[in-house]
Design brief:
Keywords: Transferase. The longest helix is centred in the middle third of the chain and has 13 residues. Strands 1, 2, 3, 4, 5, 9, 10, 11 and 12 form a nine-stranded mixed beta sheet that branches. The protein has a three-stranded antiparallel beta sheet with strand order 6-8-7. It starts with a strand and ends in an 11-residue tail after the last helix. The protein has a single domain, classed as 3-Layer(aba) Sandwich (Glutaconate Coenzyme A-transferase), CATH 3.40.1080.10. By secondary structure, the chain is an alpha/beta fold. The protein is globular.
């Protein structure tokens, strides 16, 4: 059996071609974000990408968070499908926001629950579904609408990708994954809805070492695993200094 374990993040993303569609698990913060996979993709340089993610990176949170904004800064992205592509601070627009306004980046704005359900449907093999979310709003433009139970509902199509970058806590050598904390946001859904799922993990263990009851993503979905190396340039948002408890009378700096 071919090993799913890759020695480096660069190796894991090396075959991504221009024009690929990539799901990137993100929930507006550092928890459960595949930082090193995104960093490797930025270095790799594939362009004209379609990115499916909760945000478009760099949304202006009060702490320093390195995320997939680098892909937009590098102008590697042609289209983004997201729920929250804009900054939380109007005075500090994101790179993606500037490109969208300038007509340089295509945006498909999707309500957050609908985004997750479209991904889940893609993983379940469902081509489409109806939802009342967004009916009567700008989201409904160009979409089929039907009435169910007296409520207008929109037809939403499933989402799938060529690749999915996900972040998990542990993997075994078959690719079975368990998550910890906020890693349980979009990661499990995205792991079912891509042709090639690449998992960035803290630890890889032998088959049989994971509690079967704790496994969330079966290894059948995962094609590649890369163990996280605590490199010198490890994400600033995970530095111990950020999480250090402030001294009495002081406020945490963010």
């Amino acid at each position: 059996m071919v090993s799913k374990i890759f020695k480096s993040f660069d190796e894991a993303v090396a075959d991504i071609k221009d024009g690929a569609t990539i799901m990137i698990a993100c929930f507006a913060g550092p928890g459960g974000f595949p930082y090193f996979l995104v960093k490797a993709l930025a270095k790799h340089g594939a362009k004209d990408l379609t990115v499916i993610s909760n945000t478009a990176g760099g949304i202006g949170l009060t702490f320093d968070f390195d995320d997939h904004k680098i892909l937009f800064e590098n102008r590697q992205v042609r289209k983004v499908i997201a729920s929250f592509p804009f900054s939380v601070s109007p005075s500090k627009p994101t790179c993606a926001e500037k490109q969208i306004i300038a007509g340089e980046l295509e945006l498909e704005l999707v309500p957050q629950g609908t985004l997750v359900e479209r991904i889940r449907a893609g993983g379940a093999g469902m081509p489409a579904f109806y939802t009342p979310t967004g009916a009567g709003t700008i989201v409904a433009e160009g979409k089929e609408e039907r009435i169910f139970g007296g409520r207008p509902c929109l037809l939403e199509h499933a989402l799938r990708a060529d690749y999915a970058f996900i972040r998990a806590y542990k993997a075994d050598k078959l690719g079975n994954l368990i998550y910890r904390g906020t890693q349980r946001h979009l990661n499990p859904a995205m792991a079912t809805a891509a042709d090639i799922v690449i998992a960035e993990v803290d630890e890889i263990v032998a088959v049989g070492r994971l509690d079967p009851e704790a496994i969330i993503t079966p290894g059948i979905f995962v094609k590649r695993i890369v163990r996280l190396a605590h490199e010198p340039d490890f994400p600033r948002h995970l530095n111990k200094s950020f999480w250090a408890k402030p001294k009495k009378g002081q406020r945490r700096k963010r």
